[in-house]
Amino acid sequence: MATAELASLVSRLETVVKKLESNTGGSGDAQQQQVTAKFIEAYDEFVTEYVDPYLAASAVLGAGDMADQQAKLFKEICGEMKKFLLIVSKYGPPANDSVIMALAKNMSTKMGAMNDLKSKLSRKSDQKNHMLAACEGVSVFGWIGYPKAPKKFVKESKESVKFYTNKVLTETKTGDKATEHKNWVNAFVNVFDGLHDYIHEYHTTGPSWNASGSPATETSTADAAPAAVPPPPAGGPPPPPPPPAPSALAATPAAAPAPSAMAQVLNDLNKGTAITSGLKKVTNDMKTHKNPDLRKHHAPVPYKASNSGYKPVTKAKPAAAKKPPVLRLEGKKWVVENQENAADLKIENVEMFHTVYVYRCNNSVLTINEKVNSIVLDSCKKVGLVFTSVVSGVEVINCQSVKVQCQGQMPTVSIDKTDGCIVYLSNECLNCEIVTAKSSEMNISVPREDGDFDEFPIVEQFRTIWNPDKKTFITTGTESI
């Protein structure tokens, strides 16, 4: 009877479990696939709603023209992006960034091909700024490499594109195809708005990798489905091993513990007066007050502090590993880092909205032959900077023994926490504003008619006095520098 009741109970439990599974909508894998399909489907909608109108607007300007060719390449890059997102939907996050670069290799190749079209561009072409805008905008697909702020990267790319699209609107305002060019600009800029919204919805912190998939590798493809991570075994953790048999515990008896020092003292105290029976009798010849000769031969030894005290062991800090030198364009910022003894560094093919950031370089010379937005020298030593012009200014911070030469225009130069800085001005930037703080050994060189320079030091010491008339402090530089 007990067996029949147990079988009935098991059957009822199985029925309840099946009902619960049907109500929850299946396993977690099915839910993950449903979410995955949703962001792939949303990407297809983004391409249809935003990229296809840009493609159509480019064809209207002239089928086969540069703008049309670039739009078709842009659409192909969108296709490569979808393949990458399919891999994201099936695999878990990769071990390092090099895997992402390998998976996006085809996309990078097509992006390079799109930029190569600039070499075929004629300066007299009416689609010059269209092409420059597209070449600048194609970098937006690099959002997959910015997991912390992909939306911000897209927004910055849009601002860079608008630098050229505004030129398109200005140059074609009164032309025959003014409306067509305006439609092209609106369609292209809308692509970035649509991508921004898509990332905000599905990839806020970078690509949404499949948490239940195995880690992506360089050989992962969008076609083959990876093996899912095996679930933990049912029934909880295995039981602990059984305790050893009593016979094993009793096989080797433990030795009796030795009495402690305190126990020995208590045993001696328990002897009472018998404890003195073991003492040796002291005779008169052993007493110093009875035998003066003992004081002569056994003078007290003066106390001497031991110098063998505890000294903490200090481990030598390991030498910091040298980081590899860097010179590359990231978005609209040129990054120059960790350059050592490089006397011929050059930045070419720059745009006016680009910025340059030079960090931790030593004994090197950097040349910039075109106008940029701004330049920053940070934590550099014995570095020379030669540039044509800047839009906003140059900033030197935390540097030692650096030289800055402007060959064109420079509105401002800021020197902060720097020891040793020489700034060579051109005739075009003699009216620039120089701002200094917490710095020393600063000199400004001004060109003469014979081509040489006159050097003027910048004041480092100041005198502050109270002005009773103005009821404020007046600060002036001292002549002793």
UniProtKB/TrEMBL annotation:
It comes from the Eukaryota. GO terms for cellular component: cytoplasm; plasma membrane. Keywords: Cell membrane, Membrane. Residues 318-458 form the C-CAP/cofactor C-like domain. Residues 214-227, 247-256 have a biased composition (Low complexity). The keyword Repeat does not apply. Residues 208-256, 285-323 are annotated as: Disordered. One of its GO terms (molecular function) is adenylate cyclase binding. PROSITE patterns: C_CAP_COFACTOR_C (PS51329). The keyword NAD does not apply. Residues 228-246 have a biased composition (Pro residues). Coiled coil: none annotated. It is found in: Cell membrane. Residues 285-294 have a biased composition (Basic and acidic residues). Gene3D superfamilies: 2.160.20.70, Adenylate cyclase-associated CAP, N-terminal domain. It is a peripheral membrane protein. One of its GO terms (biological process) is actin filament organization. Belongs to the CAP family. This is C-CAP/cofactor C-like domain-containing protein. It comes from Ciona intestinalis.
